[in-house]
Structures are given as structure tokens and as C-alpha cells.
Amino acid sequence: MEYLIKQYTREQSKSEIFTFEDYMLSRKIQTWHNWGQPCKERISLRRALLARLELNRKANMYAGALGLHRLPDIEEWDPLQTEELYDMDIERLRWSARIIIESGLFEKKGNVRHSYIPYYHKPSRYLAAEMLLAVYDEVDVENAAGELGRMQRDGQFSWYRRVFH
């Protein structure tokens, strides 16, 4: 559990975005450190942290499969800094991220209870930002998301192992 918490805090220290889910996870971690938690809450915290790691690995893996390497790995990536540095069109970024979300590349599971901002948004934005930096248009984003989905279904990412069921 300490390893998962350390990975989460390392990632959060590099990001300027603090979502509602981050707030809830931070509160759960603080409660776990200060007073301990009932078994059910520890399991919930562990699953939420594992889901984040799993989706981060998927985002890095998908970017690598498409040959997109302009941004650092998602753990080191700061969305606000990227938008400022590369002067990205925010609407195109949102549209591309929406295409990736709807493609189902990142499952919507393992989120913290009562979270209104599910974590799959960050991996989707990361992949969308990589695609926009590689000058993908909307059709290219749709085709790439479809190709990644096909590769996943065909087992071409067989080295990727699920962390939990």
C-alpha cells in the first residue's frame, strides 16, 4: 500500500491540476495514515490507486504503440504546462479526448466512490495531446483509437497484465 501511495503522491507533485477525485483520494490516504481504516475502505483505496497505475500504464503503452514520444510519460506530464508550451487549441484537445473516451480504450472502473470527475479523463487527454502534437486531425484520432482498440482485442498488447479484476 505504501508503494501505491508513494506513486500517487509522486505523480500529484508534478501536476498543477487537482480534481475532485484527487481530493477524495488525498483524504482517504490522510485518514489511512492517521487513524487506519476499516478493511472495506482500505480495499477501496487500494483499488482506486491500482486503477490509476493501470490506466497510466495503458496511456504510456498506447502512445508508444503509435510512436508518439514528444511528451514525457503520463506520470511526469503536466497538462497545463503542455497547453501553454505548445499553444494547443483547447477545443481540439477536448474533442480528441472525447473521441478517445468514447472509444473505450480506458475503462471507466476503479474510480473512487462519489467521484464526479473519473480518472480516465487524464489518460485520454494525455493521448489526445500526444496526437495533436503529431498533427493528427479528428479523423486520424478516430482511426488511431480504433486501431488501438483492435490491437487490444487481438492481444497485441499481450505483455500487458491486468493488475486487478
Automatic annotation (TrEMBL):
Superkingdom of the organism of origin: Eukaryota
Protein name: Uncharacterized protein
Originating organism: Penicillium canariense
